[in-house]
Write a structure and sequence with these properties.
single chain, Immunoglobulin-like, Glycosyltransferase, 2 domains, 6-stranded mixed sheet, 5-stranded mixed sheet, disordered N terminus, binds ligand 9MR
Length: 565
């Protein structure tokens, strides 16, 4: 083994202290471990010095499919890597491939084909079934080894901060992440993103059989059945006056136990002051239920109407209570915060979705008045995220097709969306790993920031139909699935080298060595103050800052994968 090969392998070993999986390939060759669609741009990166050519081998053939020179080295500051690009875009024959670089050995295997995203898509949406609270869960037929007994069943208790006493039925919904909490604000962006994914790809998704518990028992498409499981929970979190409580969790995070082992009482938690319900949670419900009114209408009129009524009453509540904020946990509660000191962006989103669903100008008037509180609209530096849903509001307005729309303002938003998408695309094309993050975006859940940039590009593509945007969304996926400094797919069970130790209670507690499938881990997070930022990820189940999973991270992944189908 040459010195160079040894150097290439050693850091990888140090980076993954918990992993038992050793790479059967050289991690100095970074490639998307799903692969590439036949007609898209295809690149891999090499981070070890080489003057050899790259040879593309197609499985089943003993003749090289392509021999090409490796490109010149250039420094990538965020990862600290010296990157050489292998551009094999001209290879279009479907099949399974590896890349060999003389003196380095082979890359992870990957495929070229137009159907390659179908399985990862299925896994990433079925991962939501694997987050269902208050019900028995099994991931059979695909993954029968993953199952649990219902936990967090029965009535929940009102916490003092909710302004009520006694019990409430808040069974159902998705567990937020690797913990057993259920949080309205994070549910909001998650559910909205998934409903958008359906709306924008309904021709592909409406008939797709996903083998969810409702398959064959409901006239609703499977994708929407999965989403309905959480939407029903969100509706239960709404009080009769329209307002919503912030979350339903136990007092503290549980240990690493299975759902049915967590016997601490679930509590309905509010702000502990004022109206007790909060404007962010309530406006998020208004936005999401308004989208649902559109998405479910062709399949279940009554449910669509129920959602629209919930959206209207939530919106009215927020109009009456625009500034009821949940900023920190009340006494006695230490689960996830999702605190937010500004509810204007959530209101903006609610107004935009209600306008899009009803065509009523009063909602449009509210939207425009609120939108003008900010000097800008969409930018290439502001992807959506749970504390900031203004981009969702603006994008939905850009996508609205109604005759009474304010064309002038819509044109401005569409124009800004194009400028933003151009900026994101330019950044991707300049980045060593063809990904969109700026140096200061390696924060908690950075992988979801990549996925949310992909979502913005997908929305822009739906309006502008620019091949460059489509390619840029694909590049975001390629980063998440292995074309990164770790040569590592960040989605469990996808790729030959994927996270083995996510911070996910039931993955740790279930006695199965491998984690639950289809889950995107948070990714590099430089809030440890270490450098380089892109390298601050560790496959360690104790490290929730970098290796937790979360529904709001999987949702934009599902969105991007749906677009890639
Ligand atoms: O995703 C959230 C991230 O933006 C915050 O910085 C972090 C700390 O407040 O919390 C993250 O959300 C976690 C939530 O609070 C509890 N469930 C797990 C979530 C993902 O780590």
């Amino acid at each position: 083994m040459s010195c160079l090969i040894a150097l290439a392998l050693v850091p990888a070993m140090q980076d993954f202290p918990n992993a038992t999986q050793t790479a059967p390939f050289n991690t100095a060759i970074k490639v998307c471990q799903i692969g590439f669609k036949t007609s898209e741009s295809k690149m891999a990166m090499v981070t070890t010095q080489t003057d050899g050519d790259a040879i593309l081998w197609r499985k089943g053939s003993d003749r090289p499919a392509l021999v090409i020179p490796v490109g010149p080295a250039s420094a990538d500051a965020d990862s600290g890597d010296e990157i050489r690009v292998i551009d094999f875009s001209k290879l279009r024959t479907p099949g399974e491939y590896t890349i060999e670089v003389k003196g380095l050995g082979k890359s992870a295997p990957f495929r070229i084909g137009d159907d390659i995203f179908a399985k990862p898509f299925r896994m990433s949406i079925r991962a939501f079934t694997g987050q269902r609270a208050s019900t028995d869960v099994s991931l059979a037929p695909d993954f029968p080894q993953y199952h649990y007994k219902a936990g967090h069943i029965g009535m929940a208790e009102y916490h003092a901060s909710s302004g009520k006493a006694g019990q409430r039925d808040v069974a159902g919904g998705w567990y937020d992440a690797g913990d057993y909490g259920r949080y309205m604000v994070n549910s909001g962006i998650t559910t909205g993103t998934l409903l958008w994914a359906f709306e924008m790809n309904s021709s592909k998704l409406a008939k797709l059989k996903l083998d969810v518990p409702e398959t064959g028992k409901s006239r609703i498409p499977d994708f929407l059945s999965e989403v309905k499981y959480n939407l029903d929970w969100m509706l239960k979190m709404q009080d009769t006056d329209g307002g919503c409580w912030h979350k339903a969790t136990t007092a503290n995070f549980s240990g690493f136990i299975m759902p049915d082992q967590d016997k601490s009482p679930v509590q309905v938690v509010g702000t502990g002051k004022g109206a007790f319900k909060n404007s962010t949670a309530t406006a998020d419900l208004a936005a999401v239920a308004a989208i649902a009114a559109r998405a479910y209408r062709p399949y279940h009129r009554d449910y669509a109407n129920k959602c629209l009524n919930a959206a209207r009453s939530a919106y009215q509540w927020v109009r009456d209570h625009p500034n009821e904020l949940f900023q920190r946990n009340p006494q006695g509660i230490s689960t996830g915060g999702y605190g937010d000191g500004d509810a204007r962006d959530e209101r903006l989103w609610a107004a935009a979705e209600l306008y899009r669903s009803t065509g009523e100008v009063s909602f449009q008037d509210d939207f425009i008045a609120l939108a003008k509180l900010w000097p800008d609209t969409l930018t290439d530096s502001a992807p959506p995220g749970w504390p900031q849903v203004r981009p969702m509001a603006l994008m939905t307005f850009a996508m609205t097709k109604l005759s009474n729309i304010d064309k002038g303002y819509q044109n401005r938003v569409i124009h800004d969306l194009g400028v933003a998408a151009d900026g994101i695309t330019a950044r991707i094309n300049k980045n060593g790993y063809c990904m969109p993050l700026k140096t200061n975006e390696y924060y908690w859940g950075s992988n979801s920031v990549v996925a949310n940039y992909a979502l913005m590009l997908g929305v822009a593509d739906s309006i502008f139909h620019k091949p460059a945007y489509r390619q840029a969304t694909m590049d975001c996926l390629h980063y998440l699935f292995g074309r990164n400094t770790f040569a590592q797919s960040f989605v469990t069970h996808v790729g030959v080298y994927s996270p083995l130790n996510p911070h996910h209670r039931w993955s740790v507690a279930d006695g199965v060595r491998e984690p639950w499938p289809g889950l995107l881990v948070g990714g590099p997070n430089a809030d440890n103050g270490q450098k380089p930022p892109a390298k601050q990820w560790f496959d360690d189940w104790k490290n929730y800052r970098v290796n937790e999973v979360a529904i709001n991270w999987n949702a934009p992944l599902v969105f991007a994968l749906a677009g890639a189908l």
